[in-house]
Amino acid sequence: MIDTPPARQLVNAQFPHWAALPLRPVERGGSDHVIYRLGDELAVRLPRHGGAIGQAAKEYEWLPRLAPHLPLAIPAPVAVGRPGLGYPWPWAVSRWLPGAVATVDEFGDSQDTAAGLADFLLALQRLPVDGAPAGKGRLADRDDETRAAIAEVAGVFDAAAMTAVWAEALAAPEWDRAPVWFHGDFHTGNLLAEHGRISAVIDFGGLAAGDPARDMMMAFTLLGDAARAVFRARLRVDDATWARGRGWALATGLNAYTSYAAIDARIAAQTSRQITQALTGFTG
User: Fold this and answer.
1) Please, which residues bridge with residue 101 across strands?
2) How many other C-beta atoms can be found within 10 angstroms of the C-beta atom of residue 166?
3) DSSP letter at 87?
4) Using CA atoms, how far apart are residues 155 and 150, in angstroms rounded to an integer?
5) What is the pLDDT of residues 94-110, one digit of tens each?
6) Whole-angstrom distance, CA of residue 158 vs CA of residue 242
């Protein structure tokens, strides 16, 4: 955790024109960043670990180019802070996006929401990828850790079903078309909602061009069966991409569950649902 006084000092030292604005922590900022609200219109995001240190520069470069073409709001970066005062990594200041994190209870059965999220991905995928960061990592790179996680949670979830889902995902043909933009971490926790509708997509640390399968995670983190079918149909997702997407949902759900479930009941509930939904309706 980066306490408020050091964050205040960073803002004051590097952006003195914001020194008079109040700075207050945002509860449940996220596993990758500590988030503060700066005044009424800005947010400060400081990486918690080295794995998130490239996000500030990436979002600052790309999100202003993508935003005008997308049907939902996305973060609007306004500055990138430098390491300093003992804090080791670049950090970000962006416009504050109003709304609360979307929930399964409110949106999981909404076919309109499913269609809207699919339309967001379709709009993203249509944008030119010239100069885009290339997607890194394949499902196969996660094989050892995923199989170890399956064994670790075999007493909680259906190990045979998880193994079958994972095997089908690995066996699915890889993406062989032109690379397209993908969000890279497209799940419930990265959606904001206002007035009964999804209003914004946040946290573009995984933004890259390549195989869009990992964005299928949304189907298994937020949506129920009927809405999931609408999402898939709207995107016209082929069987291989769907199988890889299901594999991404399983692998990331297992990783988060084994890392955080014992210490965070909220994450335990979210990832339990993600894992079980990745198994729902699977026929092998």
Assistant:
1) 192
2) 23
3) B
4) 9
5) 999 999 999 999 999 99
6) 20
CA angle in degrees (0–180, nearest 5) for 91-62-60? 25
Query: What confidence score (pLDDT) does residue 52 get?
Result: 84
With tokens 């914004």, the residue in question is 200
Cα separation, 41 vs 60, whole angstroms: 17
Q: What is the pTM of this model?
A: 0.94
pLDDT, residue 281, reads 67
- Distance from C-alpha of 181 to C-alpha of 5, rounded to nearest angstrom: 38
Q: What is the total residue count of the chain?
A: 284
Burial 242-274 (b: 16+ CB within 10 A, else e): bbbbbbbbbbbbbebbbebbeeeeebbebbbbb
What is the per-residue pLDDT for 56?
96
Q: Which residues pair with 201 in a beta bridge?
A: 191
Question: If you average pLDDT over residues 262-284, what whole number do you get?
Answer: 87
- String of DSSP letters for 129-173: -TTPPBP---GGGGHHHHHHHHHHTTTTS-HHHHHHHHHHHHHSP
Report which of 249, 216, 246, 252 is spatially closest to residue 231, judged by C-alpha positions: 216
Distances (CA, A) of 28 to 5, 10, 202, 220, 274: 19, 21, 14, 22, 19
- pLDDT the model gives residue 280: 87
Alpha carbon 195 to its chain's center: 22
Give the pair of three-digit tokens for residue 194. 């206002």
Instruction: Give percent of the chain above pLDDT 70.
Output: 96
pLDDT in tens, 107-128: 999 999 999 999 999 999 999 9
Euclidean distance between CA atoms 71 and 69, whole angstroms: 7
pLDDT reading at 188 higher than 80: yes
- Identify the structural domains of the chain with CATH numbers, from first to last: 4-96 (3.30.200.20), 101-279 (3.90.1200.10)
